[in-house]
Design a protein that fits this description.
Layout lengths: L1 H26 L16 E12 L10 E13 L9 E5 L5 E6 L1 E3 L7 E2 L8 E5 L8 H4 L3 H4 E12 L10 E4 L4 E2 L4 E4 L2 E8 L1 H6 L2 H5 L15 E10 L3 E10 L10 E5 L5 E6 L1 E3 L5 H4 L2 H5 L16 E4 L33 E9 L14 E6 L7 E4 L3 E3 L3 E3 L7 E3 L2 E10 L8 E7 L2 E5 L39 H11 L15 E10 L3 E10 L5 E2 L2 E5 L7 E4 L2 E7 L2 E6 L5 E2 L3 E2 L6 E2 L1 E10 L8 H5 L4 E4 L2 E2 L10 H26 L1
């Protein structure tokens, strides 16, 4: 009997221990598992799962600002009937998250890790699929999750209070105007989800091919447009390498680049074997020799390899290397990095180069082609604009004309497009400024105080960053600001102007432009525009644009510049052929200071097409001025006519005389 009871007791004990263990597991926070697909979603299901977090130092007194290391996962699942091309997911973080690792996607704007989602992203952080950019439909793939779902692993730091509070984002959505995403709902404590559906307009415009395609290579998104478009064409493909053509095309009406610098990030172990039409800033193969590339390509002579950096920097070649058969001979190459707007010279609005790229496992297949990510483009000049580039988007293969002259085209094997747009950072200052002067007033209105920003660590006498700039004599425009003090003080004493204490700081601009109203008569008027280069570098192929809101229709011609009325009240100007070189500031014999490089021209206007124009009252001054694509800081005032002031004084004197006379008569 006792022998039969013992096994039952053991069994009962095992069951009790199992129950106790289960109860303990229920009270311990566990990593949240990926939720099952929402059975009610027939669109694009977005899910964000907060997996876990660990308290990290420093430990702070305010529990709501304590840093934690966290892990999360975001998924994009296509449950609809239309392929999702080049997907991008928006996540609005709300607890000061700093991202230190992202897997299965890249930051759409090409941001660097660690990435501050509050300061860098602003409202929302966008993740773009990489390497899986497209999600097919369940119908076309028999529900194959590997082809209809993308998963993004996120690691970072979050600032939040202690548990059981879960610091979830405030919103998630699809970064695609064709879809509407309702507010996400919390399916569990650490999981939020939403189902995005096509807008009625997108649904109506969807073609039969769009809705039922099964081959992602046969249907592409339309090519995008932007201020600068980078096209990445694969011309030839082999199992372990491919030949690529990279083309930069400037579409900005006024933007330009000087000595452009292009960079990207290899995400799959690739390296550059050789290049034509451009060169890398460094020739370095140590990353390959001591890395997995050296282990795999053991028979490859790495002394012939150009660059193994994960983030190479590419520079254009000088014009003198265009006919070099080893590194030149590529259409649109070798212009010393200058890309001009099409409105100035369409032939110089493009730049291109070729390169041979070696791949690494598991991509050793001629059809496994992936572009680099996180493109960045900039110019060497302080006057060049800043660009923000998106991630590569697969587009229809580029068609090239047959090189032999036959009436046929050759298609690229694969093509991606990167769209870059000019951006201005918050609080960014202009890089050029404008001064006003006129024939009827012998004082010049200078550039605004700190027009292009004031250095934080200024040396020398203290100056005011808020005081209004002082009126100057005309000759002071040729003098650097540091040498204008005596002229400004003498002019103020002569004209009985107030002198602020401390005196205003300079404008700190590399280029200043003087607009001088020269004449004003019954049938027309004229102005003289003068460019001053205060930089230490020459400016080749400069251009400027002037917006004349009231006088545009009356523009006649420029006498020493090429000037064209291009619409929208804008006059486009550039130097004459052979004279479009604005030299840097230089030392001149007999001068104690550097003299700026300068060019000038007179512009004539007629009043026939602008009846009622009042040049003196301000209609003869531009409202906006651009130089090399950058919008210049404008003065806050215009020269006042001395005749206008005399007229006011005379009228006021007459009023005072009449008032006094009337008073005397009343006294009598």
């Amino acid at each position: 009997m006792a022998g039969s009871v013992a096994p039952q007791a053991v069994l009962l004990g095992v069951l009790l221990l199992a129950g106790l263990a289960a109860a303990q597991r229920g009270t311990t926070p566990a990593a949240a598992a990926a939720p099952a697909p929402d059975p009610g979603c027939n669109g694009i299901q977005l899910t964000y799962t907060f997996e876990d977090r660990t308290k990290i130092r420093p430990f702070v007194a305010d529990k709501n600002k304590q840093p934690y290391a966290f892990r999360a996962n975001a998924t994009v699942l296509n449950s609809g009937t239309r392929p999702l091309k080049s997907w991008a997911m928006l996540v609005t973080f709300g607890h000061g998250e700093i991202l230190v690792g992202v897997d299965g996607a890249v930051l759409t704007g090409g941001g660097e890790l660690p990435y501050n989602t509050t300061e860098d992203a602003g409202n929302a952080t966008s993740f773009s699929g990489y390497p899986q950019t497209d999600l097919l439909t369940p119908i076309a793939t028999a529900g194959d999750l590997s082809r209809i779902q993308a998963s993004v692993g996120i690691v970072g730091t979050v600032f939040a209070g202690p548990g059981p509070f879960v610091p979830l984002p405030t919103a998630i959505s699809l970064d695609n105007p064709d879809y509407e995403c309702p507010a996400a709902t919390n399916r569990t404590a650490g999981v939020m989800s939403t189902c995005c559906i096509l807008t009625p307009e997108a649904e109506a415009n969807a073609t039969v091919i769009d809705a039922n395609t099964t081959d992602p290579t046969k249907n592409f998104l339309p090519r995008g447009t932007g201020d600068l478009v980078i096209t990445y064409d694969v011309l030839q493909a082999y199992p372990s390498s491919y030949l690529a053509l990279v083309t930069l095309e400037n579409n900005a009406k006024l933007g330009r680049l000087d000595n452009w610098r292009l960079s990207w990030e290899w995400r799959r172990g690739e390296f550059i074997y050789n290049m034509k039409g451009a060169h890398t800033s460094e020739v370095d193969t140590s990353g390959c020799i001591y890395g997995p590339q050296g282990q795999y390509y053991q028979s490859l002579d790495f002394s012939q390899v150009l660059n193994c950096d994960r983030k190479p920097v590419i520079l254009d070649l000088p014009l003198s290397r265009y006919n070099d058969t080893q590194i030149g001979k590529i259409d649109n190459c070798c212009r010393n990095g200058t890309i001009l707007p099409k409105s100035m010279d369409e032939k110089q609005s493009k730049s291109a180069f070729q390169m041979q790229v070696y791949k690494m496992p598991p991509d050793l297949n001629r059809t496994k082609l992936f572009p680099p990510a996180n493109f960045k483009i900039s110019g060497a000049s302080s006057l060049n604009p800043d660009y923000t580039c998106g991630q590569p988007i697969p587009v229809s293969p580029t068609a090239f004309p047959d090189p032999s002259g036959l009436d046929s085209t050759t298609m690229a094997m694969a093509t991606w497009q990167v769209v870059c747009n000019i951006t201005k950072t918050k609080g960014a200052k202009p890089k050029c400024c404008v001064t006003f002067s006129a024939y009827y007033n012998n004082s010049v209105i200078p550039c605004n105080t700190c027009a292009c920003g004031c250095p934080a660590n200024r040396r020398g006498p203290t100056c005011s960053t808020t005081a209004q700039s002082m009126l100057l004599p005309p000759e002071a425009l040729l003098v650097p600001f540091d040498n204008r003090t005596q002229k400004a003080l003498a002019w103020a004493e002569l004209k009985h102007y107030n002198v602020p204490r401390p005196m205003p700081c300079g404008d700190f601009c590399g280029v200043s432009i003087n607009w001088h109203v020269s004449t004003d008569y019954n049938k027309g008027w004229s102005a003289r525009v003068t460019l001053f280069n205060w930089e230490d570098v020459d400016m080749a192929n400069w251009f400027a644009a002037i917006v004349m809101d009231k006088a545009y229709d009356g523009f006649g011609k420029a006498y020493s510049f090429n000037a064209t009325a291009v619409g929208k009240n804008t006059i486009f100007m550039q130097g004459l052929e052979g004279l479009n070189y604005l030299v840097k500031q230089t030392n001149m014999s007999g001068s104690d200071y550097l003299v700026p490089g300068k060019q000038q021209s007179v512009l004539s206007f007629t009043k026939k097409l602008t009846p009622g124009i009042n040049v003196v009252a301000g209609d003869g001054f531009p409202t906006k001025v651009f130089f090399n694509g950058d919008e210049c800081a404008m003065p806050q005032r215009i020269p006042m006519s001395s005749g206008f002031r005399t007229h006011l004084s005379s009228a006021l004197s007459l009023v005072l005389v009449l008032t006094a006379s009337a008073f005397l008569l009343l006294q009598q």
